[in-house]
Design a protein that fits this description.
The structure is a single chain. By secondary structure, this protein is an alpha+beta fold. It has a single domain, classed as Sandwich (Jelly Rolls), CATH 2.60.120. Helices cover 16% and strands 28% of the residues. It has a five-stranded antiparallel β-sheet, with no helix packed on it. Strands 6-5-8-3-10 form a five-stranded antiparallel β-sheet. The longest helix is centred in the N-terminal third of the chain and has 20 residues. The chain starts with a helix and ends with a helix. The structure holds 2-acetamido-2-deoxy-beta-D-glucopyranose (NAG). 2-acetamido-2-deoxy-beta-D-glucopyranose binds next to loops. The site of 2-acetamido-2-deoxy-beta-D-glucopyranose has 2 residues, from loops.
């Protein structure tokens, strides 16, 4: 009997871990109320009677982003800040425009895995696994290719074609967050002490 109970116990633990990670909303809709002063993990729900069709709509992702900046790319996010109805649903997306030689420089989403689809152009993309391997997983992508950046890992895209490039990426968080590595490390407010940065870099 004992081994059977052990097996059942392990199975229960495995199932509960799997369910705990892939959490489900507790209601059909919880459209965010952006005006609430209550601070919770996420955003509080609007009164369902006040929910409108437009709470689930975003328009304009066909528009070309302005890539005249130092990195030559522009991200148009569509997360819970743009679609209030995404609240509690664990999903969002971005459109990214790249000028020729434009990059989306190394960054990470603390809360989300990203799955990127190339709509136009040619890219080198990659991510780096965590310590101690720090292995670079990198690939050249063309139109129609899809690549995954696992949650939390530092990743990048670089347009290596001659023309403008476009990608769409989906993320498994309503609010994936973004940490551009260079900005976080060298552009924090206030600064991280420069002698410390000099030592570690
Ligand atoms: C794009 O951004 C640059 C730099 O901010 C600005 O000078 C330019 O007018 C913008 N172009 C358009 C079409 O908005």
């Amino acid at each position: 009997m004992a081994p059977r109970f052990l097996l059942l116990g392990l199975l229960a633990i495995a199932l509960s871990l799997a369910l705990a990670f892939d959490y489900s909303p507790l209601q059909n809709i919880c459209v965010a109320n952006p005006n609430s002063l209550v601070l919770v993990n996420g955003l509080v729900c609007k009164d369902p009677k006040l929910v409108q069709c437009n709470d689930f709509l975003f328009r304009g992702l066909h528009l070309v982003g302005n890539t005249s900046n130092s990195v030559g790319s522009r991200v148009a996010p569509v997360n819970v800040a743009q679609i209030l109805g995404l609240n509690t649903l664990g999903i969002s997306l971005v459109r990214i425009n790249y000028a020729p030689c434009g990059t989306n420089p190394p960054y990470t989403h603390p809360c989300a895995t990203e799955i990127l689809t190339v709509l136009q152009g040619n890219f080198i993309v990659g991510f780096v696994t965590s310590n101690p391997e720090n292995r670079l997983i990198s690939k050249v992508l063309k139109k129609g290719d899809v690549f995954v950046f696992p949650a939390g890992l530092v990743h990048f895209q670089c347009n290596v074609g001659y023309g403008n490039a476009i990608a769409i990426a989906a993320l498994d968080s309503q609010n994936p967050g973004v940490i551009p590595i260079a900005n976080a490390v060298f552009g924090s407010k206030p600064d991280i002490a420069s002698d410390l940065l000099a030592k570690v870099f």
